[in-house]
Structure formats: C-alpha cells, structure tokens
Design goal:
The chain has 8 helices and 14 strands. It is α+β, with helices and mostly antiparallel strands. The protein folds into 2 domains: 135 residues, no CATH class; 224 residues, Phosphatase 2c, domain 1 (4-Layer Sandwich). α1 runs parallel beside α3. The longest helix has 35 residues.
Length: 370
Amino acid sequence: MKKIVVIDSGNLLNQNFIESLRLKKDYSIEINPSIPHNGAFVIYATEKTVSNYNDYLNYDFIIKVDPQTKSISNYAIVPKNSLKIRTINMIIEKLNIEIIKGSRANFNENDLNIAEIIKEKKLIEQENKNFHKELTFASELQKTLLPKRYPKEDKIRFASKYLPTAYIGGDFFDVEQIDDDRVAVFIIDVSGHGIKSAIIASLVKTFFEKEIINAPSPKDFFEKLNEEFIRNFRDEDFLTCFLIVLDFKEMKAVYSSAAHPNTILIKRSGLIEELKTEGFIVGMFENTKYYNIEIDIHSGDKFILYTDGIIEVFGENNEQYGKERFASNIESLKNNDIEDLADGILAELLFFSKEPTFEDDLTLLLFEIL
C-alpha cells in the first residue's frame, strides 16, 4: 500500500477531508505538520513514512498542478487558500497524469519556493552523481597509466610516489625498454583536472609506447608529439613533460624537456645538479624546436623527476613550499637510498601542508643507476 503524505502548516485539514482520503483504499494517510513549506500544501506518494525534513527532500512529487509551471518537474502544490476536498480527490484519482488543470492566479512566489528548492536540490544531487561517476572513471583510468613493473632491474632501481588530487589530474610517468641497452623514462603533466586530463594522459601514454622505440632522440620524440598534439587537441589543452633515454652500454643519457620542472640529479659524489634545457610546452606552438642534452651516468647516480604540484603545495599562512625548500630537503636526504629518499620528500610535504589532500597531483619518480 502506498502512503499519501500530507504536509500542512496551516491546520486547514478537517475530519471530512481526512476521511475522504482514507476512502481511497489504495492509500494510507499520514499528516505531518512539522515540515516547513512556506505556505504551500504538498502531496506526494512514497513507500515509507517521512519523519524529518531531510527525508522529505529525498522523494519525488508525483504531479504538476499548473501547466504554466511545467518547468518544475513532478510536484503537486496547492495553495492554502484553495484547498478543497474536490481538489485532493482529483489528485488522488489521477495520479498517473502529468498535469491537473489549475489557475496561475492561485499561486504566489511563496507557494512555489518549496518546489524551486527541491528542484535545485534534485539538480545538484544529479550533478554530484555525475561528477562522482566521472571521478571514479578518471581515477580508474589514471591508475592504468602508471607502470606495473620496471625494466632492467639489474641496471636501474626505481621508487615512486603518487598522490592524486581529489579532482583527478593529468600527471603520469612511464618507463619503456627501447632495446637491450636503452631505457626511456618519461613524465608528463597535462593541464587541468578531471576526466578530460586523464584521457589526454592516456592517449599520450599510448603515443609514447608506440613512438619511443623508433624516435631517434628525445627532442625528435617531443617535436612529433607536439605536432600530433596540436593536430588533435584544442588550443586550451597542453602539457609539460621530461624524457630521458639511458644507455647502459655507453653509460650515457640524453634528455630533453618541454617546459617541465627540472629533473634533479644527485651524483654519486653527493653533488646535486638540475638537468636544464630549453623547450616550450607541448601543444602551445606549431613547429616548436626541442633540444637534446647528453650527460655521463655512473653507478650510484640518483635522479628525481617530479611535477609542479610538489613545489606548489601550500602550508600555513598560504605559504608555498617552493623550489628552495624542496632543494634544501633533498640536500638533507641525499645520502638515503631512493626508497627512503622518496618517503622523506613526501613526509616533508605532508608535514609542511598539514593537509591530507592537495590542489594538484603530487608525482615523484626516482631512479638510481646500479
């Protein structure tokens, strides 16, 4: 049996009205005078008793009263001054119809306030559901971007930390073995957040896996990536990235950057350097030129790749973490192995921010030459 819930703050209901409702054997009646509704008289059907205002907002109304209020979905609203038993009988008898004829003159702004509030709540609830579905999808997609295992474990050891923002960003890193002697390490940061950024990151990952094997060098890879990116994405879409190819036969590395934060190199001697090079953001300009830098690598060298979310963390008094504090932290941790180094960097960030969530992804990829 369905239950008709009558909400009336004006004590207008009389015994004849209640008995008239009860004569409809398919329904039981509950009178609830405690729910605020700005003078409107509202009827709706539900499977359970409404005991408080929050419960009341969770259910749909079943009928619209006035054709001129058709933009308001699924409401039955009758002003206090027009409450008639015949009107109620009409509503009950015609529960399956969308509109019961009424006069606009009988409605005032107060009568419609409750409908507008509930309409807005329903829209917000639907938007929230859609938003959370999007976040879940983007989060699952983003998890697939990170490598499950690393190549050349006898030559190189990796450690990583990844803390995604609540809004899901476009950070990711990847490692690919090009041939028996060479390994490519790639990190990117796609502009924006959400499912769009996650999808762009996924497409760039696919491009990387396909093209890196045949790319003559990092700069050539970036030039082709930039060309493809401009062809396929909008002007507001762009990304920063860093790519380094390690040659364990020659013990050399070649790297290039597309406006990405400089990778940190901790040499086996303890000296710390930044790997700097010129290069514009991918997706910004056509025919952009990128540049290769070659360096020697040695057993014991440690590399720290990261995205700008690391240095843009905010702490108390809206103070930014910044590059200087980051460099100082690395200096104090440089003698640790890379797992402890990654843990120490993240611990310092969490201590500085005093917050478990961040406005941007925190992405760290460390590796050590063995």
